[in-house]
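To: structure subgroup
Subject: Chain for Friday's discussion

All,

I'm putting the inputs and outputs inline so they're searchable in the archive.
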Amino acid sequence: MRVLVLHAYSAHNKGDGLLVDETLHLIKQALGESNEIHLIASDPSSFAHLPIDGLHNSKPKHPRALIDYVRQLWMMRTYDVVVAVGGGYLRAGNCIEALKTLAIHGPQLLAATASRRPAIYLPQSIGPLRGPSGPLFRMLLRRTRKVFLRDDVSVRELHLPNTQRTNDLALMARPSNHRIGRPLHHRPILSVRHIRGRIPLPVLRLAEKLDQFDGYVQSSTGGNDDTHAMASISPLETVTMTELLGPEPSERRVVIAVRLHAALMALNAGHLVIHLAYERKGFGVFEDLGLLEYVHKVTDFDVDLVLHQIMALTHNADTRSSYEQAVAAARQQAMTAHQSIVDELARAAATTPMGV
């Protein structure tokens, strides 16, 4: 079975790396071990460590890479199944955003619909789709086999018959429970990023009122490099990915994260998480988790309320117990959603027309 995976970004953004990992896991579950898998990504070399048969650049900078990219788009009809990674990359809130989306993701979406192969878009937040590009995206997405959506606003905005509301892929990742019940570190972790070129004022106020906290860098690639933003708020220490997410037993932490997948990866590692959301996807995911009270709009939140939540999670066993019960219930729902996607991939492969 030949499978082409579209729309990947960079493994240097840990959230995007997780989405590709989970996509490959779903393909393996649905289609078995013996597949030929190719991946189109903005930073393909960052995925060289994965068991992938071909890596192709969606942002080619030299003629050879451009020729390879065009060839992959043209030859998409030779694959049995086309799978788009989850994420929030199909949006056109303004003219600049629309042009970027059309340039990077438009050719892949167009080729997927023209290939006449079953194309499945894994859990997405799509939109806003303003201006003339909106009808184009809707027309193309209507021609795919299935579009899984991870928030209700995307469902309402697309309003297409081939969409299905489901959970974020990160919720379907295999969680680690070894930190649950372990001692809780007294110092929280604050993980930030720039929003429109700066750290939002409420986040700066939160950092000031916390006084002592550690930091964590979720993304360190290109225009999504959080290193400078993180250093600018002066954490006592900046923990590594291994320290925060690794399998070795360590103290449990309260984590306040701006990037959604920083929040979800910390949650999967057994930490207690508060999310400061900058896009609607965060509210949808935390609603699915039963933790809507622990997600706040990053540019306009009650700093004292978040401080109270941090203190309650740190010092109140009943608060932690209620939090854990909500997450456990959401995991059961996510298992059902996971199987639904596996089944859809298997059906798509079974109905693929033979021949080129």
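Points worth raising on Friday:
The chain has a mean pLDDT of 93.
The first strand starts at residue 2 and ends at 8.

D.
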